[in-house]
# Entry
Amino acid sequence: MTTTSSVSTSGSTSHVTGAVSGLDTDALISAAVAQQTARADTIDAKVTANKTKISSYQTLQTLLQAVSTSMSSLASSTFSAISTTTNAFDEKQAYLTASDGSDATGVLAVAADTDATAASYEITVTQLAKAQKVASATQASAKTALGLDGVMSLSAASGTAVDITVTSGMTLNDLSTAINAQTATSGVTATVISTGGGARLVLSTSDTNQAISVSTTSGGDVALGIGLTDSTGAFASQLQAAQPSIVTIDQQTITSDGNELDDVIPGLSISLLQGTTTGQTITLDVEANYDDIKTAITGFVTAYNALRDFVVTNQTVGSDGTVSADAVLFADSILRDSGRQLSAVLSGSPSSAGDDVADLADLGLTFDANNKLQLSSESTLDNLLLTNLSSVASFFETSFTADNAGLKLMKNATTQSFDFSLDVTATDGAITDVTVGGKTGLFTVSGSLISGAKGTIYEGLSFALSPATTGPIAIKVDQGFANKITSLLNGYANTTNGTIQAQIASLETIDTDLSSKSDDIRTDAEDYRARLVTKYANMESELSAAQLLQAQIKAILGASNSNDDS
# Structure
């Protein structure tokens, strides 16, 4: 009996089957290939570790962004005359109170923007503005032909007259459709109201306190024919007269065509919903938006504590001296440096702060035993917001002053405060040189824009000077707490050019190179496997042939011995 060998394929891997030698060729080949791929396994482990680290960096990036975002609404943006950016300290909130204790929001709706001045107003609403409404006589139905021919001119006082052509076959519905097709021009809308006794055409103005005008342009008098007007040309049935709104604000009477008062008090949009009752007065108080300011502060506490949990996880050493597998960024310089700098800002006092609110503790914010922030005295914060908002704003906002009104702060992306003199040289209305203390190269100039040079302490500052004038300009920039936080963390967490993003990009580049090397090693190893399979298959084939030859020889010898015995 002989045994043969062959090569079988499973998936993309070949194996030697029917081994004549009795050797475990698959095990031998796998062991040899494993030696070849051992380096690739090490590389793959490194790639996996880098991916885990990238994920942790992205988490850190997100947490830092959340802290920065929580402070962005309390930070000063720019001081440019053309800037429209505001923050929570600029926002205003309108509060309504009725003198009789009823719900004042049923009488007025008020929206306040940043131009509104904190003040109080007494308001009564004598009447609301209304649109004029007139109706035709009752017709047989909305679908019955009117039997009229003529051209009717129609308009509201605020619109432009349009011609409505009517033919004998048109119904009340057709007439309504023709009128509404030109509402945008005429300012008049039409509606057909049907009852069991017939149908009437009702005309109304798009805008309140506007009179409707109707006349005959040519042909028959259509308006008279449907009973919209009488023989004198006056409306036969006026359902509602046009009237203006009448409002008294601080004893000043205002009459308006509409119920939306957008230009009576700067920064306030007042919507009239209904008239006040006899003896009723609505008090309108315009104040700072305390809710948004407090929400930003408490949001900062929440965001910081989430970051703190992440930091603790990545810095903790177990009681046995080992580091948890969750501490992916243990001893990481970016985590350490960002945490150290953030802690310095939180424990310090910004140069913009005054004596009343000099640090977080003055706002009622303290650190607990786990170094987490807590609002330990909410009443302290509430009282400051209500009675000393300017001190709270000074703590958070950056203060900028310059003794040249033409100089505007355009960019403030630094945590440092400054007090220096900017010496400007201008020729023929153009800035030609800028120095500080006689030193050049600290600022660059592009047109009217003066920017702190990269690598200097002024990097992150930009000013615009118009008109360009020669001479020194005294500049003082006192960074507020919120600006220090946003500038610091943006340097780390910016997804375009932040420190963390640069590290992520570096790790991704490294992983790409490592993965390519690993793939090459595994490709070479598979080639090596194929060669070994061929080698062992050939060996087994040769052994199989030898086994066959041996059997043949034995058979021949056996036959010879049988012949000799006979």
